[in-house]
Amino acid sequence: MRLEYIRKVRENETLGKTVFDNDGRVLLKSGVRLTNRYIKNLEKLGVYYIYIEDDRLEDVSVEDTKLNSLKQYTMNSLNKVIKSVGVVNKNTTKEYLQTVTQMIDYILEAGDINASLFDIKTYDNYTMVHSVDTGVMAAFMGINMGFKRNELNDLVVGGILHDIGKTKVPISIINKRGALNDEEFNEIKRHPIYGKDILANNYAIPETAIKIIEQHHEKINGRGYPYGLVDNEINPKAKIVAVCDVYDAVSSDRSYRKRFSPKEAYELVLADSGRAFDERAVRAFKKVFSVYPLGSCVKLSNNVEGYVIRQNDNFPDRPVIRVLYDHETKMPIKFYEIDLLKELNLVIDTVV
Question: Among 127, 130, 68, which residue's Cα sits nearest to residue 103?
Answer without folding.
Answer: 68
